[in-house]
Amino acid sequence: MSDTPVQTSATVLTVRQVQDYHALTLVAPAIAERFRPGQFVALAVGGEHTARLVRRCFGVYEVKPDYGGTVELVFADREPGTAWLAGRRSRDRLDLVGPLGRPFRLPRDPVSCLLVGGGPGGAALFALADTLHRRGCQVHFVLGGPSGGQVFGSRMARRIGDSATVTTEDGSLGEKATVRDVLPRVIQETGADVVYGCGPTDLLRSVTQVAGEYGLPSQVSVESFLRETGACGIGVCMTCMLPMHGEDGVTRMVRACADGPVLRGDRVRWGDLGTIPFDALGAPRVLAVAEGGDA
Amino acid sequence: MNTALMETRLGGLELPNPLLTASGCGGTGRELAQFFDLNRLGAFVTTSVTARPRAGRPTPRMAETPSGLLTAMGLPGPGIEGFVERDLPWLAEQGVRTIVSVAGNSVEEFGELARRLRGVPGIAAIEVNVACPNVEDRGRMFAWHPGAAAAVVRAVRTHARPGVPVLAKLAPDVTDIVTIALACVDAGADGLTLINTIEGLAIDTGTLRPALTGVSGGLSGPALRPVALRCVYQVHAALPGTPIVGVGGVASGLDALEFLLAGASAVAVGTTLFHDPTAVPRILRELEEALTARRIARVADVVGLAHKPAGHVPPQVRPEPPVPVPDPGEAKEKPS
């Protein structure tokens, strides 16, 4: 097993509709064997002579050793690139780079883990659940979304999780609530020792905050932020930057792809996403002066 | 058939092949090194180094456009100290020929950067990113004025170690790029890099606002290639003795060949690296094949060839149609 990512021409095995999303299974043994939960892949869309230069980044739902090693992704077809992906047929070939980014850190002891997912981001938690189970950890799920169709994997979570709580904003599935509403209760009921999250940034911010209130560490994957802002997935384009505290307390702009997508929730400055905080390393000096910082 | 000789020169700098990375597109080098040996590059061009660390602009910094990419990054980077301490030694350790791109807000800052790099080993050449806002002139780009561009080049040439080639990287959105090129060469540039991005705008029809935080951004990618080729062609016609690095939407070996024919001695790959991390070795292979198919023995023989009058080009350069080869990956990776 090697840590370095590979670029490969992967064969499509299946594309199927799962609730409001698409699940794409690709034969990519070199990526499947290197993959660790939390990592992602970057796909070229539109074919060889396409006008679309930006790679699409997706978390991995599952890797399987059968068929020579498959990688499965879950995505919403919200823009022309992902719509093109949704239209692929079996035996089509796709240019795939992976596995990329840093994986979820795993607990050393068999502790109680709470896995919180929102929308298609929930998909990335199942590979993690598998690994945690194998380490003897308890795995509890909280999955949420605006409607039932947008909650990925609720049945699977009920099957494999030690508990599963599902929330929808319209009440069409599970409780009519947001993930944030139920988190304190679930943390108390499950006696969680660590919280993992993957989904929209608002959800990750809540996860981090509630986990913090209970003194729990949080590991969150900013895969959805990366999907919206990233162009390359490998750390060269510098378009997916977000502000984060370092060990030394200094805020730096880090790459969601190469420094993430899994980050310590308490280190991310969620309120400052989409800005350069005035006290960040290398922030524009005019701002630093205006804010009374060092000029 | 013998394969073509790929060696090329940028003034005093000898390169084993004409394929470079474009500034700002290859990260620190470490990211691309995961995918191929950086020693296969003619040279690695660094992201523009600034005097102090810069966080750059807030997201969104990028918008996808047809065959292009619009970006407004705000020159993020560790600053010259961080670069000299961490990034440059790593590149030198790998034995990568490194062209250091420098960017400043004033003529003095450019000079300071060149001075700081003077004593540092492992620099093959310095590329001057003239497309920076000139704080002393209402934030207008140095690259827009022959005088301002020349002043920057002169400052870098004066302070850089003698013998280290200085390349000026020019912006295309000017009335006459040849005038700017002439001014830079007069000021001591050993070569030119053509071109930087062209300014563009994209509007997000969802938010009804400009798609980038920086409002307008730099357009890169294949959409830019005809503009870049035109610039290379015009400047080579005016300054046939000045080596040119052609940049702008190079995605294949034939794209690279186009730039060589227009007058470039080397070709840099930029946005394509975001799309395809192994683009450089692939393009190099494709270029080698393209030259061989045209019975051209050396890269140097095609530089500027498109300027020769029709009929001067020997008839045998028409390549034979390629023989279709079955895809070996097909059988190997088929699920069983």
Automatic annotation (TrEMBL), chain A:
Any one GO biological process: pyrimidine nucleotide biosynthetic process
Similarity field: Belongs to the PyrK family.
FAD-binding FR-type domain boundaries: 5-106
Presence of keyword Cell cycle: no
UniProt-recorded Gene Ontology molecular function terms: 2 iron, 2 sulfur cluster binding; flavin adenine dinucleotide binding; metal ion binding; oxidoreductase activity
PROSITE patterns for this protein: FAD_FR (PS51384)
Gene3D superfamilies: Dihydroorotate dehydrogenase, electron transfer subunit, Nucleotide-binding domain of ferredoxin-NADP reductase (FNR) module, Translation factors
Pfam families according to UniProt: DHODB_Fe-S_bind
Organism encoding this protein: Actinomadura viridis
Full protein name: Dihydroorotate dehydrogenase electron transfer subunit
Annotated binding of [2Fe-2S] cluster, by residue: 232, 237, 240, 257
Transmembrane segments: none
Reported cofactor(s): FAD; [2Fe-2S] cluster
Residues binding FAD, per UniProt: 81-82
Lineage of origin: Bacteria, Bacillati, Actinomycetota, Actinomycetes, Streptosporangiales
Keywords on record: 2Fe-2S, Electron transport, FAD, Flavoprotein, Iron, Iron-sulfur, Metal-binding, Transport
Cofactor note: Binds 1 FAD per subunit.
InterPro entries xref list: Cyt_c3_hydrogenase_gsu, Dihydroorotate_DH_ele_sf, Dihydroorotate_DH_Fe-S-bd, FAD-bd_FR_type, FNR_nucleotide-bd, PyrK_electron_transfer, Riboflavin_synthase-like_b-brl
Automatic annotation (TrEMBL), chain B:
Keywords carried by this UniProt record: Cytoplasm, Flavoprotein, FMN, Oxidoreductase, Pyrimidine biosynthesis
GO cellular component, one term: cytoplasm
Any single Pfam family the record assigns to this protein: DHO_dh
Region spans: Disordered: 308-336
GO biological process per UniProt: 'de novo' pyrimidine nucleobase biosynthetic process; 'de novo' UMP biosynthetic process
Cofactor, how bound (note): Binds 1 FMN per subunit.
GO MF entry, a single one: dihydroorotate dehydrogenase activity
CDD domains, per database record: DHOD_1B_like
Chain positions recorded as FMN binding sites: 23, 129, 169, 195, 221, 248-249, 270-271
InterPro entries linked to this entry: Aldolase_TIM, DHO_dehydrogenase, DHOD_1B, Dihydroorotate_DH_1, Dihydroorotate_DH_1_2, Dihydroorotate_DH_cat, Dihydroorotate_DH_CS, Dihydroorotate_DH_I
Residues the record marks as active site: 132 (nucleophile)
Positions annotated to bind substrate: 129, 196-197
Pathway in which the depicted protein is active: Pyrimidine metabolism; UMP biosynthesis via de novo pathway
Residue spans of biased composition, Pro residues class: 316-327
Top EC group: oxidoreductase
Cofactor: FMN
Compartments it resides in: Cytoplasm
EC number from the UniProt entry: 1.3.-.-
Dihydroorotate dehydrogenase catalytic domain segment(s): 7-291
Family in the record: Belongs to the dihydroorotate dehydrogenase family. Type 1 subfamily.
HAMAP family: DHO_dh_type1
Task performed by this protein: Catalyzes the conversion of dihydroorotate to orotate.
Name of the protein in question: Dihydroorotate dehydrogenase
Species assigned in the record: Actinomadura viridis
This protein's encoding gene: pyrD
